[in-house]
Amino acid sequence: MNVITVKINGIEYNLKGDEQEEYLHKVAGYVDKKVKNILENNGKLSTSSAAILSAVNIVDDMFKKQKEYEKLYNDFEQMEKMQKSYEEQIESLKKQLKHMEEYNAELQLKLKNDVNSQYLEQKEQQVEKLIKEMEIMQNTAQKYLKENTELKEQNKEIKFQLQTSKYKVIDLQHKLIENQISLAKEKKFNNPLLNGEQGVK
């Protein structure tokens, strides 16, 4: 368990987490930036109001990232299906190519025994056509494999962003509770009736 001290809007907080210190500082920095940005745009806001608006903004960011992640994940699943389909087609073409190579060898043997050379040439053309088709399929499959790898990297980054947003929201919830407690104490202190004082008759 890592324990670090961070500053958010000039106030020190102790953060605890199993994550690395660098990650916890990054989370605190993100929240600090959000709160300061809101206070800069509206200096009349209290700290608790700024914290609530920051929480709203962070949750909004999280929902958008989650939606983006879901879209990318659906695209990724589609790409995996396409990749599997291309791999099956490549395997099928490889089998056809092997069969045609064997058939070609048989035809060449017949050619040596004065078999019709025109018939053999036609079969060789068919083999060449199949080879070209297989090369096209392999290139297409490689393209989708590359796109698939890129999608995996994007998914990894989005998962990290979602995790970051989750911790930001938790931290803001804690701050909101602290601010509410502070406000309640201030109201009690400033209210004479709550402090046992009597008003002027």
From TrEMBL:
Give start-end ranges for the coiled-coil region(s): 69-161
State the source organism's domain of life: Bacteria
SUPFAM superfamilies per the UniProt record, alphabetical: Cell division protein ZapA-like
Record GO cellular component, one term: cell septum
Write the record's keywords in alphabetical order, separated by commas. Answer: Cell cycle, Cell division, Coiled coil, Cytoplasm, Septation
Q: Name one GO biological process term.
A: septin ring assembly
Q: Where does the UniProt annotation locate this protein?
A: Cytoplasm
Assembly, in brief, is: Homodimer. Interacts with FtsZ.
Q: What does this protein do?
A: Activator of cell division through the inhibition of FtsZ GTPase activity, therefore promoting FtsZ assembly into bundles of protofilaments necessary for the formation of the division Z ring. It is recruited early at mid-cell but it is not essential for cell division.
Q: Can you name this protein?
A: Cell division protein ZapA
